[in-house]
Amino acid sequence: MSAKQILKTRIIVGMEIHVQLRTQTKMFCGCGLSFDAPPNSHVCPVCLGHPGTLPVINKQALRFAILAGLAMNCRIASYTKWDRKNYFYPDLPKNYQVSQYDLPICGEGHFDLPSETDPQTIRIRRAHLEEDAGKNIHDTGAHTLVDLNRAGTPLLEIVTEPDIHSAADAYAFCAELHRLVTYIGISDANMQMGQMRFEPNVNVEITHREGLSKTPIAEIKNLNSFRSVKNAIDYEAQRQIAAWEANPGYELGQAANENRGWNDDRGVTEFQRTKEAAHDYRYLPDPDLVPVTISETMMKEIRTDLPELPIARRKRFVSDLQLSSKDAETIVDHRATADLFEDAIEAGGPTDMLSKQMINIWLSLANDRQTDIANLGVSAAGIAELAGITDRGDINKSAAKQIAEAMLSDKQSPRELAKHLGLVQVKDTAATQAWVQQAIDNNAPAVQDVLSNPKKAKAAVGFLRGQVMRISGGQADPKLVGELIEKLLTPKPD
């Protein structure tokens, strides 16, 4: 078929997301979880699949799965069971994975994806518990090594309906889901450690002169960044369109569905194997694990653990606190930071100044230290007081940053630090006028630009203001300085 015959294309994406749950031990045994432990040091007869061993359900993992289901508006099963998913790879020595097949813990739900222009609802098909596989290591030459420390780690697999129709929306969905699982505390979701992995199922609907066609589905395995999700989907969609143009038999139901990997260095997807169907895994109920009945009492307990979710919190910050959408998203991104922000408001901090300092000062300090604001060790009362004395003009914005840095190691209050560091603004008009006059006397070229060069006047005033702040040691009130510069350099009428 010729490319000219294509009238329209539409990407179709359904996501499978694997989330490692933040438990102390594995899903069915007592082995501890550690990312950087020596290979095969966190294993036992259960997760090694030795004969005669019996697994025991991790109750905390079950509670985390239900909490996630509630956050995604899922139907929570009152009765669920465990199944064996049979496959023969070395990363699970039992030759099967304990998972959930026909009775998942979380059924149908939905996830609202916010957008100022095109809000969407992504339907959740299911979310089920299973155990993670070990890690195959392929970078040792002719041999593959297997580390089974990860084997048996509790996983929540979240499966969406194919409701996503662009790589950008897939990126946004993955980022929002990542924020959700960390917000409700079920996972650290460190993608570099493999704690959250994305697998988009991609195909393309092609409208052409002869009718409507769909390409076979490709599942792109184990993506560990939002950027990789976007780039892989963009590439795969174009690859499938080109394959459809070149091969009349490249149609859904005619050509095989595939599993593909993402080569980030080359920016391409690569064929791994044809995609298995459910019957290929020969699911059967696990005879060693009893089914689970979820009581209403348990559901009530778990519901009390559900916090205000990040999307709702952002909306409230915009509507009630009058924050911009961008500022609300930045502050809400980390739950403990958003909690600290609200605690600072409760402590009397002015909201507008607080939001500016949270982003421009405290977030900058946290990023420099590779942490988040809540872990800087500064109290909500201290953050509120710094915003208050800045808002009242007792200190200027530059001084506020100096004081914030000092607060990380000095337990004095912001007001005490401002006095100790000589950063309290002087509002004495006579003293300020003397500083302004000194700056004017010492900087004749800048004065000349203010008086006779309209193109340079604004920059020259900024330069003079900076000179006054230097002369005053940062104590001058910038607003008063500006007023006095304008007053002293405005030509007087004849």
Largest sheet descriptor? 9 strands, mixed
Number of domains: 3
Portion of residues in helices?
A: 25-40%
Mean pLDDT: 92
Structural category is: alpha+beta
Note the overall shape.
Answer: elongated
The number of helical segments is: 15
Low-pLDDT sequence parts: none
Number of distinct beta strands: 16
Instruction: State the assembly state of the protein chains.
Output: single chain
Distance between the termini: 84 Å
Give the radius of gyration.
30 Å
Percent range for β-strand residues: 15-25%
Structural features, described:
The protein has 494 residues and is α+β, with helices and mostly antiparallel strands. The chain folds into 3 domains: 291 residues, no CATH class; 111 residues, no CATH class; 61 residues, Orthogonal Bundle (Arc Repressor Mutant, subunit A). It contains 15 helices and 16 strands. Strands 1, 5, 6, 9, 10, 11, 12, 13 and 14 form a 9-stranded mixed beta sheet that branches. Strands 4-3-15 form a 3-stranded antiparallel beta sheet, with no helix packed on it. A two-stranded antiparallel sheet has the order 2-16. Helix 2 runs antiparallel to helix 3.
Salient structural properties:
494 residues; nine-stranded mixed beta sheet; 20% strand; alpha+beta; Arc Repressor Mutant, subunit A; single chain; three-stranded antiparallel beta sheet
Summarize the structure.
The protein contains 15 helices and 16 strands. The chain is α+β, with helices and mostly antiparallel strands.
